[in-house]
């Protein structure tokens, strides 16, 4: 009874020596709903799963499948997830019983009275032991569970990071695929313009022969032909660079397949592509909060809160039960005898009073790290909000300018059709018609560029949102 009272008094005294510092937790930004997502009278729902399927393009599906299976960044991210999952198991292993098999052997020199003598003389004996030692830490203050939960949140953060990498990779592949289609259309237009310039060159040469032209006109056309040839070569270079970039994203594992897919599917950019992506009038705040990069920091905050709980446990005494059972004896032939069996079991108490300064500093550092993650989360929220708002505004603007470009190009096409009729009835010369047709191809290329810019901007919006909006069926 007296021993229990003494122990209680000692614990009460020691516990009062290590007060826990107060940690002021910074405020986490929360957003109210920005708006409801509607498109006319139709309701939109947000999806971040296989967003590229909306294009209904088997070639694009295959290209993205290559990248998601072979991309090195994504492989590294998945390995980090496996590592984090094992870290959870490692943290859990801190609880329960620990059993070790231990043994030792030592030699001692004894004097006549059994004491250890000076360096000279005395009897030499061998003392050996072998046995099992067990320890059981009693996790009264939930330290082990807190550390295990912290690792779970870190693992979730890595999964979100992997999801963000997957989104970025699929977005890059789609952009390169649409760029390839644009380059094919650009190549067609440039070659048509070259044909027109060659025809104009022949007309100028004929005019020069009959005395109706000057050599300067021929030189000017030849200069334009060379400039067009340079653009065609640059176009071919960009095609090869596009293939190379797709190969890099796919870990250089499907080079032949990628080239084959692109060469067999060089169709022009379909202007209906822009209709595949639904552009809402505004964006819900839920989409912003659930972006993978934003959720990533939220997981880090939750993990650090658990780390803080684990650090708090260090302010309290730690209890454990230790036991040992085995053989101990003099000389080898006496160690494993029945009468050499020895054992003990008893409690152990670790009191933090002698390390209170280090424990307090560690706890404060953990609290500061938590606030750093909170501010990182707040920063991510603000950046995401501005990013989505900017990309939505730019997408709406490019949608409008793309429609204007379509109307202008429709007008230019009608004018060229009228000029073709004038050519047939002889009211304009063939040279004038070819010049206007050359200009029409310039307008066509400008219109294709406007559409490609819109597709690229739509992909920017998808990357910003982390997914796409779909019409409810």
Describe the model.
The structure is a single chain. The longest helix is centred in the C-terminal third of the chain and has 70 residues, at 356-425. The chain has helices at residues 2-15, 58-70, 72-92, 143-209, 215-249, 255-264, 273-276, 285-289, 292-313, 332-335, 356-425, 430-465; strands spanning 38-39, 42-47, 97-110, 123-138, 318-330, 341-350, 468-471. Helix 3 (72-92) packs antiparallel against helix 4 and helix 4 runs antiparallel to helix 9. The protein has one domain: Outer membrane efflux proteins (OEP) (Up-down Bundle), CATH 1.20.1600.10. It is built from 12 helices and 7 strands. The chain has a 4-stranded antiparallel beta sheet. A 3-stranded antiparallel beta sheet has the order 1-2-7, with no helix packed on it. Helix content is 64%, strand content 14%. The protein has 473 residues and is an alpha+beta fold. The protein is elongated and about 135 Å long.
